[in-house]
Write a structure and sequence with these properties.
It is built from 13 helices and eight strands. It is an alpha/beta fold and about 350 residues long. The protein has a six-stranded parallel β-sheet with strand order 2-3-4-5-6-7. A two-stranded parallel ribbon has the order 1-8. Helix 3 packs across helix 10 and helix 4 crosses helix 5. The longest helix has 19 residues. The protein starts with a helix and ends in a 14-residue tail after the last helix. It binds 5'-deoxyadenosine (5AD).
Length: about 350
Protein backbone atom coordinates (compact mmCIF):
# COMPACT_ATOMS: atom_id res chain seq x y z
CA UNK A 1 0.00 0.00 0.00
CA UNK A 2 1.10 3.55 -0.73
CA UNK A 3 3.04 4.87 2.31
CA UNK A 4 1.01 8.06 2.57
CA UNK A 5 -2.23 6.08 2.68
CA UNK A 6 -1.04 3.57 5.27
CA UNK A 7 0.23 6.43 7.41
CA UNK A 8 -3.13 8.15 7.15
CA UNK A 9 -5.01 4.98 8.01
CA UNK A 10 -2.91 4.38 11.10
CA UNK A 11 -4.49 7.45 12.64
CA UNK A 12 -7.59 6.42 14.58
CA UNK A 13 -9.71 8.92 12.77
CA UNK A 14 -8.55 10.63 9.63
CA UNK A 15 -7.46 14.17 10.46
CA UNK A 16 -8.57 17.17 8.42
CA UNK A 17 -5.27 17.36 6.58
CA UNK A 18 -5.39 13.68 5.68
CA UNK A 19 -8.94 14.06 4.43
CA UNK A 20 -8.12 17.05 2.24
CA UNK A 21 -5.14 15.18 0.83
CA UNK A 22 -7.32 12.18 -0.02
CA UNK A 23 -9.96 14.43 -1.57
CA UNK A 24 -7.60 16.61 -3.59
CA UNK A 25 -4.39 14.71 -4.30
CA UNK A 26 -3.30 14.45 -7.92
CA UNK A 27 -1.40 11.24 -7.12
CA UNK A 28 -3.20 8.56 -9.14
CA UNK A 29 -1.50 5.70 -7.28
CA UNK A 30 -2.71 7.06 -3.94
CA UNK A 31 -6.28 7.29 -5.22
CA UNK A 32 -6.15 3.78 -6.64
CA UNK A 33 -4.89 2.51 -3.30
CA UNK A 34 -7.68 4.37 -1.53
CA UNK A 35 -10.30 2.64 -3.70
CA UNK A 36 -8.67 -0.76 -3.32
CA UNK A 37 -8.46 -0.45 0.47
CA UNK A 38 -12.12 0.61 0.66
CA UNK A 39 -13.16 -2.27 -1.60
CA UNK A 40 -11.35 -4.70 0.69
CA UNK A 41 -13.15 -3.27 3.73
CA UNK A 42 -16.48 -3.66 1.91
CA UNK A 43 -15.74 -7.27 0.98
CA UNK A 44 -14.63 -8.09 4.54
CA UNK A 45 -17.96 -6.80 5.84
CA UNK A 46 -20.43 -7.80 3.13
CA UNK A 47 -18.68 -10.38 0.97
CA UNK A 48 -18.99 -9.80 -2.77
CA UNK A 49 -22.61 -8.78 -2.33
CA UNK A 50 -24.58 -5.70 -3.32
CA UNK A 51 -27.99 -5.00 -1.82
CA UNK A 52 -30.70 -3.82 -4.19
CA UNK A 53 -33.49 -1.45 -3.12
CA UNK A 54 -36.63 -0.91 -5.20
CA UNK A 55 -37.13 2.85 -5.49
CA UNK A 56 -40.72 4.03 -5.85
CA UNK A 57 -40.92 7.79 -6.36
CA UNK A 58 -44.45 8.04 -5.18
CA UNK A 59 -45.14 11.80 -5.41
CA UNK A 60 -43.41 14.92 -6.73
CA UNK A 61 -45.65 17.34 -4.84
CA UNK A 62 -43.34 19.35 -2.59
CA UNK A 63 -43.83 22.30 -0.25
CA UNK A 64 -40.14 23.16 -0.32
CA UNK A 65 -38.19 25.31 -2.70
CA UNK A 66 -34.64 23.96 -2.47
CA UNK A 67 -32.60 25.94 -4.96
CA UNK A 68 -31.01 22.89 -6.63
CA UNK A 69 -33.99 20.60 -6.94
CA UNK A 70 -36.07 20.00 -10.05
CA UNK A 71 -39.24 19.26 -8.09
CA UNK A 72 -39.08 22.46 -5.99
CA UNK A 73 -42.49 24.02 -5.64
CA UNK A 74 -41.69 27.02 -7.86
CA UNK A 75 -40.87 24.81 -10.83
CA UNK A 76 -43.95 25.20 -12.98
CA UNK A 77 -42.42 23.26 -15.88
CA UNK A 78 -43.38 19.86 -14.47
CA UNK A 79 -46.80 18.41 -13.85
CA UNK A 80 -47.45 17.07 -10.39
CA UNK A 81 -48.57 13.55 -9.48
CA UNK A 82 -49.07 11.24 -6.53
CA UNK A 83 -49.43 7.49 -6.92
CA UNK A 84 -52.56 5.95 -5.45
CA UNK A 85 -52.28 3.27 -2.78
CA UNK A 86 -53.09 0.66 -5.45
CA UNK A 87 -50.33 1.93 -7.73
CA UNK A 88 -47.83 1.86 -4.86
CA UNK A 89 -48.80 -1.70 -3.91
CA UNK A 90 -48.51 -2.79 -7.52
CA UNK A 91 -45.01 -1.31 -7.73
CA UNK A 92 -44.08 -3.12 -4.47
CA UNK A 93 -45.27 -6.38 -6.04
CA UNK A 94 -42.94 -5.78 -8.99
CA UNK A 95 -40.04 -5.07 -6.65
CA UNK A 96 -40.73 -8.25 -4.65
CA UNK A 97 -40.99 -10.36 -7.83
CA UNK A 98 -37.49 -9.20 -8.80
CA UNK A 99 -36.16 -10.73 -5.57
CA UNK A 100 -35.64 -7.33 -3.94
CA UNK A 101 -36.44 -7.15 -0.23
CA UNK A 102 -36.42 -3.39 0.41
CA UNK A 103 -39.05 -0.95 -0.81
CA UNK A 104 -38.01 2.70 -0.82
CA UNK A 105 -40.88 5.18 -0.93
CA UNK A 106 -39.52 8.58 -1.81
CA UNK A 107 -41.49 11.74 -2.42
CA UNK A 108 -41.58 15.50 -2.17
CA UNK A 109 -42.01 16.99 1.31
CA UNK A 110 -45.70 17.15 2.02
CA UNK A 111 -46.74 16.53 5.63
CA UNK A 112 -50.43 15.89 4.98
CA UNK A 113 -49.83 13.27 2.31
CA UNK A 114 -47.05 11.73 4.44
CA UNK A 115 -49.66 11.27 7.14
CA UNK A 116 -52.00 9.62 4.65
CA UNK A 117 -49.18 7.36 3.51
CA UNK A 118 -49.18 5.69 6.96
CA UNK A 119 -52.04 3.40 5.91
CA UNK A 120 -50.19 2.37 2.78
CA UNK A 121 -47.09 1.63 4.87
CA UNK A 122 -49.20 -0.59 7.15
CA UNK A 123 -50.61 -2.45 4.16
CA UNK A 124 -47.18 -2.97 2.58
CA UNK A 125 -45.89 -4.24 5.93
CA UNK A 126 -48.77 -6.71 6.23
CA UNK A 127 -48.55 -7.89 2.61
CA UNK A 128 -44.77 -8.41 2.48
CA UNK A 129 -43.60 -9.03 6.06
CA UNK A 130 -40.25 -10.24 4.72
CA UNK A 131 -39.38 -6.88 3.20
CA UNK A 132 -37.93 -3.73 4.74
CA UNK A 133 -39.63 -0.38 4.20
CA UNK A 134 -37.50 2.72 3.71
CA UNK A 135 -39.06 6.18 3.57
CA UNK A 136 -37.67 9.42 2.19
CA UNK A 137 -40.28 12.12 2.71
CA UNK A 138 -38.35 15.05 4.11
CA UNK A 139 -38.83 16.95 7.35
CA UNK A 140 -41.99 15.90 9.18
CA UNK A 141 -43.39 16.38 12.69
CA UNK A 142 -42.07 13.94 15.30
CA UNK A 143 -45.54 12.43 15.67
CA UNK A 144 -45.72 11.64 11.96
CA UNK A 145 -42.32 9.96 12.08
CA UNK A 146 -43.54 7.98 15.09
CA UNK A 147 -46.74 6.92 13.32
CA UNK A 148 -44.85 5.81 10.21
CA UNK A 149 -42.44 3.82 12.37
CA UNK A 150 -45.33 2.17 14.24
CA UNK A 151 -46.96 1.23 10.93
CA UNK A 152 -43.88 -0.71 9.94
CA UNK A 153 -41.30 1.61 8.36
CA UNK A 154 -37.74 0.48 9.15
CA UNK A 155 -35.48 3.08 7.62
CA UNK A 156 -35.52 6.77 6.70
CA UNK A 157 -33.35 8.72 4.30
CA UNK A 158 -32.89 12.43 4.99
CA UNK A 159 -29.73 13.88 3.54
CA UNK A 160 -28.32 16.71 5.63
CA UNK A 161 -27.21 18.39 2.33
CA UNK A 162 -24.50 20.51 4.02
CA UNK A 163 -23.04 20.54 7.53
CA UNK A 164 -22.11 24.20 7.26
CA UNK A 165 -25.01 26.44 8.34
CA UNK A 166 -23.95 29.17 5.90
CA UNK A 167 -23.49 26.80 2.96
CA UNK A 168 -26.79 25.12 3.84
CA UNK A 169 -28.34 28.59 3.65
CA UNK A 170 -26.98 29.13 0.12
CA UNK A 171 -28.71 25.99 -1.13
CA UNK A 172 -32.05 26.47 0.58
CA UNK A 173 -34.70 29.18 0.83
CA UNK A 174 -35.08 31.29 3.92
CA UNK A 175 -36.82 29.39 6.67
CA UNK A 176 -35.02 26.10 6.06
CA UNK A 177 -32.17 25.52 8.50
CA UNK A 178 -29.51 22.96 9.20
CA UNK A 179 -30.57 22.85 12.85
CA UNK A 180 -34.09 21.72 11.92
CA UNK A 181 -32.58 19.07 9.66
CA UNK A 182 -30.37 17.80 12.47
CA UNK A 183 -33.30 17.81 14.89
CA UNK A 184 -35.23 15.59 12.45
CA UNK A 185 -32.27 13.22 12.07
CA UNK A 186 -31.97 12.87 15.83
CA UNK A 187 -35.72 12.22 16.12
CA UNK A 188 -35.52 9.50 13.48
CA UNK A 189 -32.66 7.81 15.32
CA UNK A 190 -34.49 8.07 18.62
CA UNK A 191 -37.50 6.33 17.04
CA UNK A 192 -35.31 3.43 15.97
CA UNK A 193 -35.18 4.11 12.24
CA UNK A 194 -32.01 3.06 10.45
CA UNK A 195 -31.21 6.58 9.36
CA UNK A 196 -29.53 7.90 6.24
CA UNK A 197 -27.65 11.17 5.82
CA UNK A 198 -25.60 12.55 2.97
CA UNK A 199 -24.99 15.39 0.57
CA UNK A 200 -24.35 16.27 -3.02
CA UNK A 201 -20.76 16.52 -4.18
CA UNK A 202 -19.87 19.74 -5.98
CA UNK A 203 -23.02 21.56 -5.02
CA UNK A 204 -22.75 25.31 -5.76
CA UNK A 205 -20.37 27.17 -3.41
CA UNK A 206 -19.15 23.91 -1.78
CA UNK A 207 -15.47 23.77 -0.71
CA UNK A 208 -13.30 20.84 0.34
CA UNK A 209 -13.59 22.16 3.90
CA UNK A 210 -17.37 21.87 3.59
CA UNK A 211 -17.00 18.20 2.62
CA UNK A 212 -14.78 17.64 5.65
CA UNK A 213 -17.44 19.27 7.84
CA UNK A 214 -19.97 16.86 6.28
CA UNK A 215 -17.79 13.92 7.26
CA UNK A 216 -17.40 15.27 10.80
CA UNK A 217 -21.16 15.70 11.19
CA UNK A 218 -21.68 12.12 10.06
CA UNK A 219 -19.06 10.97 12.57
CA UNK A 220 -21.06 12.74 15.26
CA UNK A 221 -24.48 11.40 14.24
CA UNK A 222 -23.43 7.89 13.11
CA UNK A 223 -25.91 7.29 10.28
CA UNK A 224 -26.54 3.69 9.23
CA UNK A 225 -26.86 4.77 5.57
CA UNK A 226 -24.90 7.40 3.66
CA UNK A 227 -26.23 8.74 0.34
CA UNK A 228 -23.84 10.79 -1.75
CA UNK A 229 -24.08 11.77 -5.40
CA UNK A 230 -22.73 14.52 -7.62
CA UNK A 231 -24.69 17.73 -8.01
CA UNK A 232 -26.29 17.73 -11.45
CA UNK A 233 -27.80 21.05 -12.57
CA UNK A 234 -31.52 21.00 -13.06
CA UNK A 235 -33.06 23.24 -15.76
CA UNK A 236 -35.62 25.68 -14.41
CA UNK A 237 -33.97 26.00 -10.98
CA UNK A 238 -32.00 29.04 -9.68
CA UNK A 239 -28.79 26.94 -9.69
CA UNK A 240 -29.22 25.62 -13.23
CA UNK A 241 -26.06 27.33 -14.55
CA UNK A 242 -23.63 25.88 -12.02
CA UNK A 243 -21.31 23.10 -13.19
CA UNK A 244 -22.00 19.51 -12.26
CA UNK A 245 -20.09 17.89 -9.40
CA UNK A 246 -17.07 15.67 -9.90
CA UNK A 247 -17.50 11.90 -10.30
CA UNK A 248 -13.90 11.43 -9.15
CA UNK A 249 -14.51 13.27 -5.85
CA UNK A 250 -17.73 11.30 -5.36
CA UNK A 251 -15.82 8.03 -5.74
CA UNK A 252 -13.11 9.19 -3.32
CA UNK A 253 -15.81 9.98 -0.77
CA UNK A 254 -17.36 6.52 -1.14
CA UNK A 255 -13.93 5.08 -0.30
CA UNK A 256 -13.18 7.43 2.59
CA UNK A 257 -16.59 6.80 4.12
CA UNK A 258 -16.34 3.05 3.64
CA UNK A 259 -13.05 3.07 5.55
CA UNK A 260 -14.43 5.32 8.30
CA UNK A 261 -17.86 3.60 8.50
CA UNK A 262 -17.10 -0.03 7.62
CA UNK A 263 -20.65 -1.32 8.10
CA UNK A 264 -22.59 1.60 6.63
CA UNK A 265 -24.98 1.03 3.78
CA UNK A 266 -23.63 3.25 1.00
CA UNK A 267 -25.45 3.36 -2.33
CA UNK A 268 -23.69 3.87 -5.63
CA UNK A 269 -26.19 6.58 -6.49
CA UNK A 270 -28.27 7.18 -9.60
CA UNK A 271 -26.73 10.64 -10.05
CA UNK A 272 -23.26 9.10 -10.32
CA UNK A 273 -24.57 6.63 -12.92
CA UNK A 274 -26.05 9.54 -14.88
CA UNK A 275 -22.81 11.54 -15.18
CA UNK A 276 -20.34 8.65 -15.52
CA UNK A 277 -20.60 5.68 -17.89
CA UNK A 278 -20.38 2.55 -15.68
CA UNK A 279 -20.61 4.88 -12.69
CA UNK A 280 -22.70 2.33 -10.81
CA UNK A 281 -20.00 -0.34 -11.05
CA UNK A 282 -17.23 2.16 -10.33
CA UNK A 283 -19.09 3.15 -7.17
CA UNK A 284 -19.18 -0.47 -6.01
CA UNK A 285 -15.48 -0.87 -6.79
CA UNK A 286 -14.81 2.23 -4.66
CA UNK A 287 -16.59 0.72 -1.64
CA UNK A 288 -20.33 1.36 -2.07
CA UNK A 289 -22.58 -1.67 -1.43
CA UNK A 290 -26.13 -0.69 -2.41
CA UNK A 291 -27.90 0.10 -5.72
CA UNK A 292 -31.41 1.50 -6.03
CA UNK A 293 -33.13 0.62 -9.34
CA UNK A 294 -36.31 2.55 -10.09
CA UNK A 295 -39.80 1.06 -10.03
CA UNK A 296 -41.64 4.34 -10.50
CA UNK A 297 -44.36 3.76 -13.12
CA UNK A 298 -43.13 4.91 -16.56
CA UNK A 299 -46.10 7.21 -16.94
CA UNK A 300 -44.91 9.36 -14.01
CA UNK A 301 -41.17 8.84 -13.69
CA UNK A 302 -40.14 11.66 -16.11
CA UNK A 303 -41.95 14.06 -13.76
CA UNK A 304 -39.69 12.99 -10.89
CA UNK A 305 -36.83 14.97 -12.35
CA UNK A 306 -34.65 16.05 -9.42
CA UNK A 307 -31.94 16.91 -11.98
CA UNK A 308 -31.40 16.79 -15.73
CA UNK A 309 -30.84 13.32 -17.16
CA UNK A 310 -32.66 11.57 -14.31
CA UNK A 311 -35.68 9.48 -15.31
CA UNK A 312 -35.59 10.19 -19.03
CA UNK A 313 -38.65 8.78 -20.79
CA UNK A 314 -36.25 6.26 -22.37
CA UNK A 315 -34.59 5.22 -19.05
CA UNK A 316 -34.71 1.51 -18.44
CA UNK A 317 -36.54 0.72 -15.21
CA UNK A 318 -38.03 -2.12 -13.16
CA UNK A 319 -37.32 -5.76 -13.97
CA UNK A 320 -35.31 -4.88 -17.08
CA UNK A 321 -33.10 -2.48 -15.12
CA UNK A 322 -32.56 -5.12 -12.42
CA UNK A 323 -31.56 -7.73 -14.94
CA UNK A 324 -29.08 -5.32 -16.59
CA UNK A 325 -27.70 -4.35 -13.18
CA UNK A 326 -27.22 -7.96 -12.12
CA UNK A 327 -25.31 -8.63 -15.34
CA UNK A 328 -23.10 -5.55 -14.91
CA UNK A 329 -22.41 -6.38 -11.26
CA UNK A 330 -21.71 -10.01 -11.99
CA UNK A 331 -19.15 -8.91 -14.62
CA UNK A 332 -17.17 -7.22 -11.81
CA UNK A 333 -17.59 -10.18 -9.44
CA UNK A 334 -20.60 -9.20 -7.31
CA UNK A 335 -23.99 -10.81 -6.74
CA UNK A 336 -27.25 -9.47 -5.33
CA UNK A 337 -28.70 -11.56 -2.49
CA UNK A 338 -32.45 -11.79 -1.87
CA UNK A 339 -32.13 -10.19 1.53
CA UNK A 340 -33.32 -7.07 3.34
CA UNK A 341 -29.74 -5.95 3.78
CA UNK A 342 -30.26 -4.32 7.17
CA UNK A 343 -27.56 -2.41 8.99
CA UNK A 344 -25.69 -4.67 11.38
CA UNK A 345 -23.33 -3.56 14.12
N1 LIG B 1 -28.44 17.10 -8.32
C1 LIG B 1 -28.12 16.03 -7.59
N2 LIG B 1 -28.85 15.58 -6.56
C2 LIG B 1 -29.98 16.25 -6.27
N3 LIG B 1 -30.89 16.07 -5.30
C3 LIG B 1 -31.86 17.02 -5.44
N4 LIG B 1 -31.57 17.82 -6.48
C4 LIG B 1 -30.40 17.37 -7.01
C5 LIG B 1 -29.57 17.81 -8.07
N5 LIG B 1 -29.87 18.87 -8.81
C6 LIG B 1 -30.73 15.10 -4.22
C7 LIG B 1 -30.76 15.80 -2.86
C8 LIG B 1 -31.90 15.10 -2.15
C9 LIG B 1 -32.06 13.80 -2.92
C10 LIG B 1 -33.40 13.19 -2.83
O1 LIG B 1 -31.78 14.18 -4.25
O2 LIG B 1 -29.52 15.59 -2.17
O3 LIG B 1 -31.66 14.85 -0.78
Amino acid sequence: MNDTLSQLLEEKTLGDEGLSLLLESGDGALVEDLHRTAREVAVENFGNEVYLRGLIEWSNICRNDCLYCGIRKSNTLISRYSLSKEEILEACGEVWDCGIRTFVLQGGENPSSALRLADTVAEIHASWPGAAITLSLGELPFETYRLLREKGADRYLLRHESASPSHYGMLHPEGMTLSTRIRCLKALKELGFQTGMGMMVGSPYQSTDNLIEDIRLMEALRPEMIGIGPFVPSGGTPLESFPQGSADTTLRLYSILRIMFPRALIPSTTALGVILPHGTEEGILAGANVVMPSFTPTLHSPQYSLYDGKNRPSSVRGAQQVSNLKKDLSAIGYRCPESRGDYKE
